[in-house]
Amino acid sequence: MAASRCSARAVRIPKWPSAIQQRTPRQRDRHLFRRQAVVPQLNRMGGEKRARPGWSPNCTRSFRLLLLGLLIATGVWEHKALATPPLHERIDELVAARAGGELGPLSDDAEFMRRAYLDFAGRVPSVTEARAFLAETASDKRQQLIDRLTDSPDYVDHMTEFLHVMLMERLGDDEAWQTFLQASLAENKPWDQMVREMVYPDPADEMQRGAAFFITKRLEKYGQNPVDMPGLVRDVGRLFLGVDVQCAECHDHLFVDDYKQQTYQGLFAFVGHTFIRRDVKFPAVGEKLLTKKVDFKSVFVMEDLATGPKLLDAAEVEIPALAKGEEYLVPPDKKTKFPGTPKFSPLQILAAQLPRRGNHAFEKNIVNRLWWKLMGRGLVEPLDLHHSQNPPSHPQVMALLVDEFGQHEFDMKWMLRQLARSQTYQRSSRLALSSETSVDTTDPAPSSYRRGLERPLSAEQLLASVWQATGPAAVEASSAAAATSEEQPVASESNTSVDTPSVKTPADEPAAAPPVSLETLREKFTAVLANPPREPEITINPTVKAALFLMNDVSVLQLLVPRDDNLIGRLAVMDDNQLVADELYLSVLSRQPTAEEQLEVAEYLADHVDARPDALADLAWALLASTEFCVNH
Amino acid sequence: MNQPLCKPWEHQLSRRNWLGAVGAGAIGTAGLGGLLPPVLADDVNHNKRQVLFVWIDGGMSQLESWDPKPNTQFGGPFRAIDTTVPGIQISELLPRTAQQMHHMAIIRSLCTQDNSHSAGVARIQRGDPKNRGVTYPYFGSAVAKLMGPGQSKLPPYVWIKPGSGGFKHQDAGFLGPRYGALAFGDGQPPENLLRPETLSEPQARARSELRQRANNRYQQGRNPTVTEANSYVFDVAQTLMDRKELFDQSNFSASDVARYGSHEFGRHMLLGRKMLEAGVRFVKVNSYGWDTHGDNFNGHASLMPKFDQAFAAIIEDLAASGMLDQVLVIAMSEFGRTPRINGHIGRDHWPEAWSLAMAGCSVGRGIAVGETNAEGTWVESEEHDIGHMFHTWFKALGIDPQHTEYDNQGQPLPIAHDDCGVIKELLS
Amino acid sequence: MIQSNDTETLKSRFETHEQYVVSAEPQIVAARFSPCGTQLVAGGFDAQVRRWSLEADKATELPVMEGHDGWVHALGFNTAGTRLFTGDSWGQLRGWAYDQPHPTPTWIQAAAHDGWLRELHVSPDGHTLATCGRDQVVRIWSADDGSLQQELVGHGQDVFCVRYHPDGRTLVTGDDRGVVKQWDVATGECLGEFDASVLYLLHRLQDVGGARVLAFDKTGQTLACGGTTPKNGGTVQGTPTILLFDVATRAVTHTLKLGAPNHCLVHDIHLHDEGFVMAVTSGTPGQGQLLFQRPEDDAPFYVNTKMPNCHSLSVHPDGTRLAVVATNRGSNGNGRRLDKEGRYAGNTSPIHLLAWGAQADA
To answer: Which CATH number fits domain B52-191+250-426: 3.40.720.10, 3.40.50.150, 3.40.50.11810, 2.40.160.100?
Structure first.
């Protein structure tokens, strides 16, 4: 196991938006979900404006804009734009064309709402949010919800977690890395720029330099293992280019014709001479001088080969011959232990060559991963095995998305919004009914997208959802407020939410234990539910460990002890069992109960009149442990 | 030629899609579906066979156990003793096991490939198959995959070991974390096994029933695989809770404790018996600390009697109850120890000629297969690699090792080294 | 009183110089000078008793004495030098009239112990000898005819070592848990225990260490018990340790830690008449020490680390020489390792014949 440099959560600095008037520990904890926004909120409203740190090479982008201008000027672009329906509609057309059968029905509002909250806010909606959305009558309310969620601070937090887990694969965490991710998501930094910064961060920029953690963490030894340099090469390939070339380290890949040993070695020449800088406290990468090509030979064909840095199909980078003493832009300094900045920096070249339009591997990788995030399945599967013999299930969709994403300057929020507007995203996870009474038992192939695919929740999504479902009814109202008030100091002590009635535990029970803290739960949820390090969280399997945890862990069970500000507390003061069922189902499963479910609640409560809080906890626990709650459907 | 150091895509592939056939019925990338007991072993519904795998970590000396060479240059100080099988002698350090030899088989012709622990432990337990760029499962994970959990609803692969417990996913290799071991560290139950006092038994039952009803409703109109997977782990958890008495060592009878030994290994072996009785498919009982590069003879003089006591007791019990017909017992290390005695009066690592003991299922009773030369330095009969053992064990479990394959995302993989075969003399 | 330059003096007087090396193949357990000083006798890993006739600059091997099994692990002479007694790891005990070309046993106890006879020691008067073994029993035998005189039961553990007190009235025995018992020879009564439990550790399943070797000083006032302060089992590691007890009170007076954890075990001890401790250690292959230390000092005044894995130490009756049994270099290694002829060769025991400073110059 890799020892993480610091715990994932230790780095979070709570901020106290005064508008929420937080008071109870639970409410404060809730806000620990917020990662501190460490930069001014440059723009929360999407990708129209964005700050681009000056060091970043802008020439290609300027050139593209110029080109775009030319196209518009010549009428080509205008013509195309006029003739083409919005992206989400084109996606649906293309998916329908390859469905191979009848498309399933769209989700109802509740199903859609839950899915959108999980995908963009990383949690289920609060009961208040759920009621409000379900009551909403506007015809474009789904689009409104998508926009609202993707502009909320929850989105920044959730995407930070999503990218963190995807990119670091539970290897560890770092404060500066979180700063980088959080700041990048907060300003909706384009993906190409984020990758550029991860490959070649500017150590002088406090907001950005933590990006180096992507490389430095992989340069750490873990256990008795030596530095896993092949692992770094592999992860750069897998996570930024969608190709897993590690098997081509010693020979051309045995099963994938496209993956040559040259591919691996060319990538190795870019990143294989890096080391962790020890002269600074933050994550920083140093580069040894690369003065000659990397020698290699296939274990199958004993022929001596060599390559300089070479990115997939791009031309091999010439290694310049620099005179002795002329190798450094900034020479090493023994006193400060500064290792020097080489004039010839393969990482800098990689940062220019890799994350850019026209690098199809780069483009397809991220499009595929965003599609996967929302649709539950990649157009190319596995996500890191793009090659010509493993084409996308929907080549035209892939081509379209690549084109559009590039045109929109790698704006992830824009892309996610477009995908979420599609019917493909909004389809129900239920099987299509072949007749009114019987279920069509032949489940269509997942790649047909004829129904919404069920997806497991990450440890973070599950925790945030459990916390939300068992917590206050309306605390989520604060989300939007928090977005604009994060510079506020700790909230003053004032009234709690007025709509949570007070409830007392029975007098014969011992004084309730103090509420369990979010930090405690977070550690436990991660330990129980997250995949082991280096195990991509593409699938998360149900485990006995998790089942025992949900069944018996005292801190989980404590969430179901009635309190002033939690679900069971609210239910306990309701006399009408139908209201209880409504509140319970809406809080936990984000939908109204069916008549059958209302009856079940009523009967169960009637059977347990003497222990109503316990019975309420039983009903709530059953829903929390149910499949319906534990998957994103 | 050097072995290529692959961490290849097959590995990744299959971990993500451990449900072999990703056809109709699979759940997209969620991969939640495959928790149904896999069906690959022949006649699986009738296959109640189980495995007791006794792992002696560090390397038990074959010369101080199954293949003594008394009064020879490397034979060491100990005597050989008669067993219940005429003609078969074992070390005097195994007096109780000698009384069970008529139930057992010894193989003395192991010649394996790796003399380091770091590689050897895993390599042996994975059956050292041909390098296909994938990480093969440990034997326990393989059996869990191929035979499933059986009817017990208990986890198919439990590992009773000193030290820490938990869910050990690493054993599973490309089969995916689900086939890892549930480890009972120091014989202790898994975390959260015990229902907290605040929750009454009827209340817990009621909760579980409510959960199942909710799941049934959710399942209607949806592919059932996801819910079945989810329900399966809760069922296993519940079974473990229901059987928590298995872990209550105060329940162990005094006579059992006396027979198995009150030491760690004895208690763990007794717990292993209870797990087998409860129906666990594969039970691994682990002892550590056998790497006797120094003071080998005093070390074995102290260690072997504890092994002997517990091992003989469980063989005796399994035989007496008739369970031995269904339980394959294996006791082994990652290698044997050098005949040469070093200056620290120790023996080093020796994969060249060593032994292991087996019993149960169709394993021959009261036999010794293979032999080493007079000084115990080399195998004199046909040499057998760990691949032969995997073939033989699978066969003994009713799995045809020649025709059963893992389906790794369409890549067929043999379950045991394809150049090896069953050692027929070991099976009856 | 000890002078500050005493250790320097001691060092110059007792620094050893190698005279020659006798190589025993296969390995031997220990080698002892005969009381007359003309022979060196050793018990082997090959069930043989080996003898060398000693001369000034060489040793000539005499015919081996056969009849044992396993390892000849125990060996001792009577003070008169007329009898040799040997015991083996299968439990056989023999008395020999050894000083002849082809010695024959004077008596044989085929099953003196059930299994490993760990050590024997002859009483000062030469009439009896005591043995101990893995069967947890201590037995006293007639030196003349090998008849059993006394059985001392009570350790309940593997008994590693035995020594008569110089007065002959008591003897001490040490077991694998670091318990040293003192027995009344006449009555067989256990008089009390010396606590050497620091030399024992239960590591996982393994009982590690124990009281490995005992030695009295000439006066019988001090008892030394050697072994290791164990760190772990498996590949046993620990700091070689000698405890010195005041025999009258059975209290520890000194604890000598002799080296690093990879030096492991004190295998043999001799308490020199001039008040210092002589000991040999054997650790991880290659590690061996011959060291001399005064009890009151923090460190030995003399250490010789040139001999790998020393297993026994015998001081010549004339007090000017000693024999140290060590092991060849490169004695360990995993897996197949063949010599030039393609044979799988065993290890050997070089016996180093050493002289103190003065004699070496002569």
So the answer is: 3.40.720.10
Q: Which of C69, C205, C327 sits opposite B265 (nearest CB)?
A: C205
- Chain C residues touching B120 at Cβ < 8 A: none
Q: Which partners does chain A have (≥3 C-beta pairs < 8 Å)? A: B
Q: Taking 60 as the threshold, does the pLDDT of residue A159 lie above it?
A: yes
What CA dihedral angle connects C236, C238, C242 and C243, to 10 degrees? -100
Measured between its terminal Cα atoms, the distance across chain C in Å is: 31
Pairs across B and C, CB distance < 8 A? 154
Q: Tell me the C-alpha distance between A67 and A64, whole Å.
A: 5
DSSP A432: P
Number of H helices, E strands in chain B: 10, 15
Alpha-carbon gap, residue B268 to B188, rounded angstroms: 10
Kindly indicate the confidence band of residue A444, based on its pLDDT and cuts at 50, 70 and 90: confident
CB-CB under 8 Å, C336 with B352:
yes
Q: How far apart are CA A272 and CA A287, in angstroms?
A: 9
Q: B217-237 pLDDT, tens per residue?
A: 998 888 887 888 888 889 889
Kindly state the helix (H) or strand (E) to which residue A178 belongs, with its residue range.
helix A175-186
Q: Is B35 close to A542, i.e. CB distance below 8 A? A: yes
CB contacts under 8 A, C 62-121 vs B, are 69-71, 73, 89-90, 115-116
Residue boundaries of the structural domains of chain B: 52-191+250-426, 192-242
Does B213 reach chain A within 8 Å, measured CB to CB?
A: yes
Query: What are the boundaries of each domain within chain A?
Result: 214-348, 456-632
Test A628 with B30 for CB contact under 8 angstroms.
no
Distance of CA C259 to the CA centre of its chain: 19
pLDDT average, residue stretch B293-319: 98
Q: What is the average pLDDT across A49-55?
A: 40
C-beta separation of B390 from B420 below 8 A: yes
Q: What are phi and psi of B170, to 5 degrees?
A: -60, -30
Distant-in-sequence, close-in-space partners of A241: CB < 8 Å, separation ≥ 6: A312, A354, A361, A362, A365, A386
B51 SS3 class: strand
Residue at token pair 């007496």: B320
The token pair at B4 is: 């290529």
Tokens of B367: 């036999």
- pLDDT of res. C154: 96
Contacts of B253 by beta carbon, 8 Å cutoff, 6+ apart? none
| Ramachandran angles phi, psi of C225, nearest 5° | -130, 125
pLDDT at A437: 45
- Residue B421 burial (CB count, 10 A): 16
> Residue C253: pLDDT above 70?
yes
**Cβ-defined contact of B211 to A382 (cutoff 8 Å):** no
Which chains are adjacent to chain C, needing at least 3 Cβ pairs under 8 Å? B
Written as six digits, the tokens of A512 are: 């309730």
ipTM: 0.96
Q: How many angstroms separate the CA of residue C201 from the nearest CA in chain B?
A: 12
- A443, A455, A614 member nearest B24 (Cβ): A443
Residue B132 amino acid letter: R
Distance from CA of B259 to the nearest CA of C (A): 16
**Residue A384 and residue A238 in contact, taking contact as beta carbons nearer than 8 Å:** yes
Q: Could you tell me which residues are beta bridge partners of residue B340?
A: none
Chains touching chain B through at least 3 C-beta pairs below 8 angstroms are A, C
| Chain B, nearest residue to A457 by Cα | B30
The residue whose two tokens read 């009551």 is: A135
> C30 and chain B: CB distance < 8 Å anywhere?
no
Using CA atoms, how far apart are residues B182 and B161, in angstroms rounded to an integer?
10
Q: How far apart, in whole angstroms, are the C-alpha atoms of residue A630 and residue A588?
A: 11
Q: Could you give the C-alpha distances from B353 to B98, B345, C74, C345, in angstroms and in order?
A: 21, 20, 31, 16
